[in-house]
Amino acid sequence: MNERQRVAWRTLGCRANQYDTELMKSRLGEGFESASPEEEAEIYIVNTCTVTAHAEAKARQYIHSYARRGLVLVTGCWATVAPEEVAKIPGVALVFPNAAKPQVGRLVREALSGRRGIVRPESDGAPLDEERISRDTSHLRAFVKVQDGCDRFCTFCRTVFARGRSRRKSPQAVLAEVSGLVENGFVEVVLTGIDLASYDDLAGLLWALDGLAGLKRIRLSSLNPEGITPELLEFFRESEKACPYFHLPLQSGDDSILKRMNRGYTVADYWEKVKLIKAALPEATLGADVMVGFPGETEEHFQRTYRLIEELRPLRLHIFRFSPRPGTAASPTKFRRGSSGNGQSGSARSGSA
Question: What is the mean pLDDT of residues 189-216?
Answer without folding.
Answer: 97
